[in-house]
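Final report, section 2: Outcomes. Of the targets proposed, Amidohydrolase is the one most frequently requested by collaborating groups, and we therefore present its record in full.
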Amino acid sequence: MSCTVVDTLITGAKIITMDAERRVYMDGALAITGSQITAVGPRQEIEQKYRSDHVIDGRRFVISPGFVNSHIHVTGDPLTRNYVPDDIHCPPAEKLTKWVLPRYEAHGPEDEKVSAQLAALEMLRSGATSFIEAGTVRYLDEVVEGVDSLGIRGRVGAWVGGRAYDASEDQAKLNREAIRQLEDEVARYPAGEDARISAWPLLIGHSTNSDEVWLAAKQIADDKGLGISAHMSPYKDDPDWFLETYGRRPIEHLADLGVLGDNICLTHVAHIDESERQLIADSGTNVIFCPLPALKGVFGITSVGRFPEMAAEGVNMMLGTDGYDADIMHSAQLVAALFKDTHLDTRVFPAHEALSMLTLNGAKGMGMADRIGSLEAGKKADFVCHDTDRPEWRPLLSIVNQLIWSADGRGVHSVWVDGVRVIDNYHSTMIDEDELYANVQRCGERVIARSKVPFVSPWPVL
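The predicted structure is given below as tokens.
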């Protein structure tokens, strides 16, 4: 019997496929040709059908699909991480204007490129092969160059502000400029079968864009088969503003505009009522939950969050890291734990559902369920090799539980995106990491200096 020649053959690994049957192969093999998976299955069966000049002994690895970080700020936060103390307690609007925006606005083009590289490296080294940017990029070309250099897959977009808050501002002009920017970015970075990095008409959300801009963004997304991601209702401020301005709550207003749907991803949605929850479920709108930022930012999710209820109604729940720890595996552990306690029910968000949020659900929200999210023949070769020769992985008795409850990004040995090994033996194959770290330190220090955000510490730093 003749064998089909493939580019790479990984044998003997434990493979979590996330296919329709959720098969887990305890002695599996993965065959790769070009950017795609050629075959996955039991080792003996695959070895009989395929051969390669590049065979990798996978016996020490658990292989999972690449994770999707569905909401991350690749600029603004990575270069200034943890500079702002966690005990700054003030209204959200004050925190935004005094502690957040000055850091973002202090970034120049080089800073945003370096920041994007750092974010991409951290995501890849913790198993995320795809991401959706949060919509706060100021220098899109430099960011695209930065993330592309690491080999990651992503959807990006520039910072679009299309609302006049002052009566002296020209709302019509702001609308035209915002819509022109959305049209321009999706034209310059078009989506396509082989486009790892492409643009979406991202909107920051909250109250930052007018109805006209929302409608235009939705039309662009619908016409070009793209998605929209936007923040909404992390705090009570958003519902209060929409009620005062429109006489209805945020999700109700978006529904009335006709801009909800399965190509819309809304992040946070902590402060929603029952009618809004039903509108999200009925419209097929995706929800992105970022557990650590929600806890650190005191959104009140443990008292008002309706995430288990949304999931129970079929809402596609995705996970993100926002502007904090980019190890998406920590988010999976948190979502698997938090609502067990709030609902006094261990059945809420079990480990296998948390893993689905990291993989299949993220792929669905990106509009790529037919290409990523599971390990199946014909899909993109985006996958992660987790090193089990580590204390957190032994003894290995229940793979999915181990992956969610014990493992994290520390055990990510190697990562493939589009059939290319972009992480090997814990390090990038695409860039000089030491050089990047030096650039990160240099740019981070000058961003903080420009921002004039004060340094606050309860202890003397000498």
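The chain has two domains: 4-66+374-428, 67-365.
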